[in-house]
């Protein structure tokens, strides 16, 4: 049985997440979802759906779609993230000030994270693994210093 199958679902998800701009796509999708939810709010503070009713729903839906595309097609992340920033900023006018600033900020930050992600970086080593390597190095140094 290959090692990848034996490691478990959590390790497989961690590997999948490491090969794409996960947090950028997730924040962009969450920003769009938050804006869509504020459009349905029955609060007295809701100002309007937008200049046109359709644009108030179209831009946040596009944000959710772009966030999912960043997650599942990271090769085109530059186009998706630039489009995501523009749609996030467009919700300022069309959707209750961008979901009362929360969805707008989530969308812009997520798009910036997706834009800045580099696919060919080496994986970061966790603190736990660095401590283990230091402990092994110290033990090897102690063992090398003792006479046989």
Q: Can you offer a commentary on this structure?
A:
- By secondary structure, the chain is an all-alpha fold.
- The protein has 8 helices and no strands.
- Helix 3 packs antiparallel against helix 4, helix 3 packs antiparallel against helix 7 and helix 4 runs antiparallel to helix 5.
Keywords:
148 residues, mainly alpha, elongated
Topology:
Elements: H1 3-7, H2 9-18, H3 22-39, H4 53-72, H5 77-94, H6 96-100, H7 102-116, H8 127-145
Helix pairs in contact: 3-4, 3-7, 4-5, 5-7
Count of distinct strands: 0
Low-confidence runs: none
Number of helices: 8
- The whole-angstrom Rg is 22 Å
Sheet having the most strands: none
Give the end-to-end Cα distance, rounded to a whole number of Å. Answer: 41 Å
Structural class: mainly alpha
Strand composition percent: under 5%
Q: What is the mean predicted local confidence, pLDDT?
A: 82
- Reading the helices and strands in chain order gives HHHHHHHH
The shape, in one word, is elongated
State the helicity in percent bands: over 70%
Brief rundown of the structure:
The protein is mainly α. It is built from eight helices and no strands. The longest helix has 20 residues, at 53-72.
């Amino acid at each position: 049985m290959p090692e990848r199958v034996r490691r478990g679902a959590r390790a497989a998800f961690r590997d999948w997440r490491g090969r794409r701009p996960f947090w950028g796509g997730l924040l962009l999708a969450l920003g769009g979802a938050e804006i869509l939810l504020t459009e349905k709010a029955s609060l007295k503070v809701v100002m309007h759906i937008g200049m046109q009713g359709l644009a108030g729903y179209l831009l946040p839906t596009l944000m959710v779609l772009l966030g999912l595309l960043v997650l599942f097609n990271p090769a085109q992340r530059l186009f998706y993230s630039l489009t995501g920033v523009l749609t996030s900023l467009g919700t300022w006018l069309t959707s209750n000030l961008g979901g009362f600033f929360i969805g707008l900020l989530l969308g812009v930050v997520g798009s910036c994270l997706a834009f800045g992600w580099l696919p060919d970086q080496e994986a970061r080593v966790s603190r736990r693994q660095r401590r283990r390597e230091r402990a092994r190095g110290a033990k090897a140094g102690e063992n090398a210093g003792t006479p046989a």
